[in-house]
């Protein structure tokens, strides 16, 4: 909305001095004795003063004098009446300029109209009077909307122009205001002839105001405004160029103090806006907004241009918001639009425009926040604007278009189909009535297209798309290529083609759409307002073509286009959600095809961002799509990491999307939900999931056109679910239906479709099942032929070869059982071997293939069983290692492998034993247990020897230690017990950390590879061979006790020689589990005060059974190797980890029990013991040990633990026992916090902890010590970088209790202390008595400090203490509750 400057004629803007006639009557105003000439001079003087000072008293007094004068004039004195009425008109007009009062305007019109009746065309004052009266009439029209005012002004100007000679000094003012009035009529009628006449008249006026003329600047500006409007309507670049030039010249001529300066600034801003609309250069829009801002600071509230300025300022802020997404721009736009309306009367000529601008801004606000009131208010304002400009109003269509948009928006928000039908009906009715040459025709057509496209999305009537294409084809034939609307129409056409492709399929439509998008891209600058939309749609089309043809270049280009769009669409931008959704989905697809985990990580980050961006607008119609996209990515992560929590999250999100009241993607969401439910059935075998999956697939299938590529995927997945249903229920109808769908898929798919091999493989599996059910050998051969056909279509490195090998193994095995042809059995095991090493697939899939191989090898007694076990353990390690956090690894381990094969390591060890390879048995036992500790230790390897090799060795050592420390910091974390939806979304924030973890891990792998190339380091961090593992027995034999379902054995390892096997024929895995359960039952059922004797009586039979079944044969052999009293290290497996081997014995008269035979220690693995021996070896001799006691009797109230009354006494006792040669400190009471304890652990080599201990059975790495402020978790201890740890005594409950779900992982507090560097650790296997612990503590430290201070004496000291304490004061279970771990 631009503004022109109206002129006043100087001839009548100064009051005339007149002399009254003699027959003038005196009035009763007190002025009767005054000279009338003096009275006129007095009024003139007051008006002149008012012009200078704007004192209201001056103009009011002048009006009073003139009014009295005028009322006293006798009839018949026309000249005096005209002069006085003219002066009154001038006075009221003066006051109007500052008051903006409608009363002043009406008075000016009234008095100048009287003058016009008296001063006819022959009067010398006629022309200047017409100039001024026409001006106030035009202004009254602007305020009150009376069209007759503007018509009267134009008639007066036309008549005056005809009678005004070319050399008249008033002609330039007359022409200016004449053009202004005609331009105002053009704004109401839209008659292009009026606009051309206004421009022509302004040009004539400008010619009469040469350079130097005082009013030249106003002519320049008025001409610029009119020409810019013509540009806006006709799109001629020359008009825009001329308008800009005229405006800049006007700005140079206009003084900053001029009342017109704000108007010129505003109009210059409008020119810059038009330039932005043409070339998309955001700098032009920014400059326009700066001009508006300056103009507003100098534009007073009553300035006639202020309303237009506010509206233009607000509109351009809204435009910038749509480009940059800055919500402050949108909020300020709404504020300015609201102020503009407040500045207008209800009949203001441009009120419809202000209402329209505010409605559009509120619609944008609704898009961001989804507040229903915004949409309702926008609709109200649009209705008011429509009422002000009916069908005959030239701006009617400009209001109708946002109203159509608002109807569509309300339909999407609330789902009322009547809104959508109304939008289509009104838009098509308007386009049929709108002349093609109208400036509104093409913009209106884009709104028609939007309405039709939206209705197609709802009703899937392809005729709507064809109408869009026809409309666009017809219009594009007539639109010049450079026209601003050309790109919008081309976009609409391309979008319709893409939609038709998604609905009907057909590569021609897709290729046509891509060609259109590329042509549009070629013509756009990066700042163009449709630039981001083109990028997003072109990326979508290329992604669709990739899905059709499999050309990776298309997908990579799509990702790059989405990335560019994301950079161009900050948060708040109207395309922000679409850009980030598109990028997330494209990355997810690329991950699914090519398996790059970084793509999955980034996909989750972007899709989670989209869901969170919609968090405030959950009613938004696009919200279900955001939920579904995020769910699909979470489902992909489940497929990679096999975390069933991810599967549940995916199902929950998809169900929420399906049940959303405004969802419009029903068929897609149903398909994804059905797929996820089918996968969950595979995971848990809940038949309800599978039944629901089939039901949803069958509902969704008819919603797609038969040849639609997504329908093909759906049909294949439906067949897969029916396939599973047959496997579950053995109902032949399910299998027949699955076969029918697979065959339909193969029939309708293009012959070169990239998914064809997978369908062939699946159909082969179904044929195999049908053959097995019907004993039909011919169908077996059909299944083989289908697999051969699939193999011919797959490259040797294609990931789907895994599925090929998987089913080939199954079919070959079954065919062998039918025919007993050994060649088929060998083919089955060769396929197992190939499946477990298939390229390009997840390690989880390889691992499951290896485990199937192992199972079949056992069943068929095949010679490859040991190879299958070795492969399984290697793949298990690799699969667990791919998870970045230690808690995540534990979850993967527990939720996957250990759930199905809890004794993998023990079974592998037993297999090697059966094969007679004891060294391999030891190696497999080591590789398959303590995986989590082993993997973390890789990043803590000490490589001081590498530094001594050469300069490269020192550099590699530094880099290795840096990357190892970095990975170590990234591994440990903690999980929450309760997971809400919000927290679920926050999980994806860790994907960026996972991405960084993998990057650092990749660099770590490269450094390790280089280290292995150095002489003497070929086996660096590889699975340790037996010849190195036996170093664990350098100070005494180590006994591995292996409990497998197949057999139970002990293997004794000594520092020299081969391992020794001791079969345990009286032990079994079931029997050991029973002993373990009985032991725990005794502790649980006899824990009361006064039950000590009963507990001892019940424990002895348990210890005796353990001795007889397991330990007696081992001790018998040990006595031939080392004498009584020697140290022995126990390395138990399975349920044996929870039993006190060190306390077992015959408990018969005259027989020795274990404490009296050997000094027992434990080790989780051989490698852990080796690390304990090597740890801090260079520091032990040179550093005086420092001792710290950490105690906490009153833990944090949230811990729920009772007060430990004996802690203080225990700490005092220890202080008295520590020798003077050791520095001794204490951390307790209020200082006994996590930070205080952690600092003490870091800076002291010997530590005694007296407090509550808690084993967390849900997340073992959250096991903790209870301190004053919060728990000190196992994960915290692992992350602490301890300076010189040697010995730790954990006087707390349950510090050496392993995880019952993963006993071979030995995850407990004592093991964590050992891993953190403590060479020797005392822990507890069950609850410690608060009233008896100090007896054991005293005896232990008496023995420990009786000779040389050495942490490796701890086991002997503990053995002595258990025998030295008063047995009447310390019951049996409290004498053996403590165990020693480490060197």
Automatic annotation (TrEMBL):
It comes from the Eukaryota. Residues 1103-1369 form the CHAT domain. Residues 1-11 have a biased composition (Basic and acidic residues). Pfam families: CHAT. Residues 1-35 are annotated as: Disordered. PANTHER family: RAPSYN-RELATED, TETRATRICOPEPTIDE REPEAT PROTEIN 28. This is CHAT domain-containing protein. It comes from Suillus luteus UH-Slu-Lm8-n1.
């Amino acid at each position: 909305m631009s503004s022109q400057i109206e002129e006043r004629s100087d001839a009548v803007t100064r009051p005339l001095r007149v002399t009254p006639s003699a027959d003038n009557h005196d009035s009763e105003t007190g002025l009767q004795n005054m000279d009338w000439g003096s009275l006129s001079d007095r009024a003139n003087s007051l008006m002149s003063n008012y012009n200078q000072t704007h004192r209201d008293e001056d103009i009011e007094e002048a009006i009073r004098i003139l009014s009295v004068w005028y009322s006293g004039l006798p009839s018949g004195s026309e000249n005096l009446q005209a002069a006085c009425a003219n002066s009154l008109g001038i006075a009221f007009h003066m006051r109007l300029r500052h008051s903006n009062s409608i009363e002043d305007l009406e008075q000016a019109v009234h008095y100048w109209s009287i003058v016009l009746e008296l001063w006819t065309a022959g009067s010398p004052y006629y022309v200047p009077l017409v100039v001024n009266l026409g001006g106030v009439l035009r202004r009254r029209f602007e305020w009150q909307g009376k069209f007759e005012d503007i018509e009267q002004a134009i008639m007066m100007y036309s008549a005056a122009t005809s009678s005004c000679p070319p050399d008249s000094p008033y002609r330039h003012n007359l022409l200016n205001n004449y053009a202004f009035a005609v331009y105002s009529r053009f704004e109401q009628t839209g008659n292009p002839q009026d606009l051309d006449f206004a421009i022509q008249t302004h040009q004539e006026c400008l010619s009469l105001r040469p350079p130097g003329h005082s009013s030249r600047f106003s002519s320049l500006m008025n001409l610029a405004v009119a020409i810019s409007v013509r540009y806006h309507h006709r799109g001629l670049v020359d008009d825009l160029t001329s308008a800009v030039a005229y405006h800049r010249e006007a700005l140079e001529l206009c003084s900053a103090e001029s009342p017109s300066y704000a108007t010129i600034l505003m109009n210059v801003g409008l020119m810059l806006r038009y330039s932005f609309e043409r070339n998309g250069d955001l700098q032009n829009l920014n400059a326009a907004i700066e001009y508006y801002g300056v103009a507003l600071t100098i534009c007073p509230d009553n300035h006639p241009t202020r309303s237009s300025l506010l509206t233009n300022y607000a509109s351009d802020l809204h435009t910038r918001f749509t480009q940059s997404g800055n919500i402050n721009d949108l909020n300020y736009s709404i504020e300015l639009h609201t102020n503009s309306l407040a500045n207008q009367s209800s009949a203001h000529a441009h009120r419809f425009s202000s209402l329209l601008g505010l409605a559009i801004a509120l619609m944008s606000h609704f898009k961001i926040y989804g507040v229903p009131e915004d949409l309702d208010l926008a609709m109200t304002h649009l209705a008011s604007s429509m009422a002000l400009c009916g069908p005959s109003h030239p701006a009617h269509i400009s209001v109708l278009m946002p109203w159509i948009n608002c109807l569509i928006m309300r339909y999407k928000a609330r789902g009322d189909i009547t809104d959508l039908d109304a939008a289509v009906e009104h838009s098509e009715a308007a386009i049929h009535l709108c002349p093609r040459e109208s400036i509104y025709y093409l913009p209106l057509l884009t709104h028609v297209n939007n309405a039709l496209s939206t209705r197609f999305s709802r009703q899937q009537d392809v005729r709507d798309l064809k109408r869009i294409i026809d409309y666009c084809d017809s219009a594009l034939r007539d639109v010049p290529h450079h026209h601003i609307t050309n790109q919008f129409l081309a976009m609409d056409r391309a979008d319709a083609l893409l939609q038709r492709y998604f609905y009907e399929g057909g590569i021609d439509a897709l290729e046509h759409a891509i060609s259109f998008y590329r042509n549009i891209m070629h013509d756009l600058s990066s700042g163009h307002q449709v630039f981001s939309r083109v990028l997003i749609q072109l990326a979508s089309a290329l992604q669709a073509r990739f899905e059709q043809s499999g050309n990776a270049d298309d997908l990579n280009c799509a990702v790059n286009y989405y990335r560019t769009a994301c950079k161009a669409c900050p948060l708040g931008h109207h395309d922000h959600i679409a850009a980030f959704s598109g990028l997330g989905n494209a990355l997810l697809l690329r991950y699914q095809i090519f398996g790059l985990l970084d793509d999955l990580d980034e996909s989750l980050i972007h899709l989670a961002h989209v869901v969170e961006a919609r968090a405030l607008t959950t009613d938004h119609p696009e919200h279900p799509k955001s939920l579904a996209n995020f769910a699909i990515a979470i489902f992909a992560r489940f497929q990679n990491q096999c975390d069933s929590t991810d599967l549940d999250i995916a199902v929950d999100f998809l169900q929420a999307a399906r049940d959303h009241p405004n969802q419009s993607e029903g068929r897609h969401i149903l398909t994804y939900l059905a797929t996820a439910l089918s996968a969950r059935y595979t995971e848990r075998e809940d038949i309800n999931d599978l039944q629901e999956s089939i039901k949803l697939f069958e509902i969704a299938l008819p919603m797609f056109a038969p040849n639609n590529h997504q329908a093909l995927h759906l049909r294949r997945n439906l067949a897969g679910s029916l396939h599973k249903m047959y496997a579950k229920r053995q109902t032949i109808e399910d299998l027949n239906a699955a076969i029918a769908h697979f065959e339909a898929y193969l029939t309708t798919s293009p012959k070169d479709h990239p998914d064809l091999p997978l369908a062939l493989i699946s159909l082969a599996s179904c044929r195999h099942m049908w053959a097995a059910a019907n004993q039909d050998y011919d169908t077996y051969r059909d299944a083989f032929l289908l697999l051969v056909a699939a193999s011919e279509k797959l490259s040797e490195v294609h990931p789907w070869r895994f599925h090929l090998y998987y089913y080939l193994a199954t079919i070959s095995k079954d065919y062998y059982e039918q025919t007993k042809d050994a060649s088929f059995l060998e083919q089955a095991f060769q396929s197992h071997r190939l499946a477990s090493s298939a390229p390009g697939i997840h390690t989880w899939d390889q691992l499951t293939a290896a485990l199937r191989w192992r199972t079949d090898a056992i069943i068929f007694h095949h010679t490859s069983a040991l190879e299958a076990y070795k492969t399984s353990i290697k793949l298990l390690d690799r699969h667990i290692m791919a998870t970045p956090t230690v808690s995540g690894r534990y979850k993967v381990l527990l939720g996957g492998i250990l759930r199905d094969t809890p004794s993998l390591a023990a079974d592998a060890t037993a297999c090697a034993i059966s094969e007679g390879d004891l060294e391999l048995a030891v190696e497999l036992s080591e590789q398959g247990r303590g995986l989590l500790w082993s993997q973390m230790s890789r990043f803590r390897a000490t490589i001081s020897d590498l530094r001594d090799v050469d300069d490269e060795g020192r550099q590699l050592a530094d880099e290795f230690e840096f990357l190892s420390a970095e990975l170590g910091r990234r591994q440990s974390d903690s999980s929450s017990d309760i997971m809400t939806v919000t927290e679920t979304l926050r999980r994806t924030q860790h994907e960026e950390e996972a991405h960084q973890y993998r990057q650092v891990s990749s660099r770590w792998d490269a450094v390790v590879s280089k280290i292995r190339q150095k002489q003497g380091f070929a086996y660096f961090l590889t699975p340790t061979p037996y010849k190195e593992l036996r170093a664990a027995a350098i100070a005494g034999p180590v006994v591995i006790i292996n409990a497998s379902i197949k057999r139970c054995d002990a293997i004794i390892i000594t520092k020299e020689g081969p391992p020794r096997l001791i079969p345990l024929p009286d032990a079994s895995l079931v029997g050991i589990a029973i002993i373990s359960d009985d032991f725990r039952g005794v502790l649980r059922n006899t824990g009361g005060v006064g039950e000590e004797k009963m507990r001892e009586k019940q424990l002895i039979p348990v210890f005796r059974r353990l001795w007889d079944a397991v330990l007696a044969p081992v001790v018998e052999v040990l006595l031939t190797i080392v004498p009584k009293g020697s140290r022995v290290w126990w390395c138990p497996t399975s349920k044996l980890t929870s039993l006190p081997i060190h306390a077992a014995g015959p408990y018969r008269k005259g027989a020795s029990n274990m404490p009296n035979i050997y000094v027992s220690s434990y080790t989780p693995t051989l490698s852990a013991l080796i690390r304990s021996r090597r740890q801090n070896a260079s520091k032990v001799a040179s550093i005086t040990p420092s001792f710290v006691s950490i105690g906490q009797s009153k833990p944090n109230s949230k811990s729920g633990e009772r007060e430990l009354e004996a802690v203080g006494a225990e700490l005092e006792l220890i202080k008295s026992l520590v020798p003077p040669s050791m520095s001794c400190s204490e951390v307790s009471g209020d200082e006994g916090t996590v930070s205080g304890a952690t600092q003490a652990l870091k800076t002291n080599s010997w530590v005694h902890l007296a407090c509550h201990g808690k084993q967390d059975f849900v997340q073992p790495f959250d096991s903790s010590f209870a301190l004053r402020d919060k728990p000190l978790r196992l994960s915290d201890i692992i992350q602490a970088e301890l300076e010189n740890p040697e010995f730790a005594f954990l006087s707390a409950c349950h510090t050496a209790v392993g995880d019952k779900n993963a006993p071979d992982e030995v995850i407990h507090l004592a093991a964590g202390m050992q891993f953190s560097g403590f060479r020797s650790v005392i822990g507890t296997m069950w609850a410690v008595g608060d009233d008896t612990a100090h007896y054991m503590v005293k005896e232990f430290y008496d023995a420990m400090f009786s000779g040389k201070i050495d942490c490796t004496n701890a086991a002997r000291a503990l053995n002595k203490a258990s025998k030295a304490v008063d047995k009447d004061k310390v019951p049996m279970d409290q004498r053996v509750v403590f165990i020693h771990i480490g060197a």
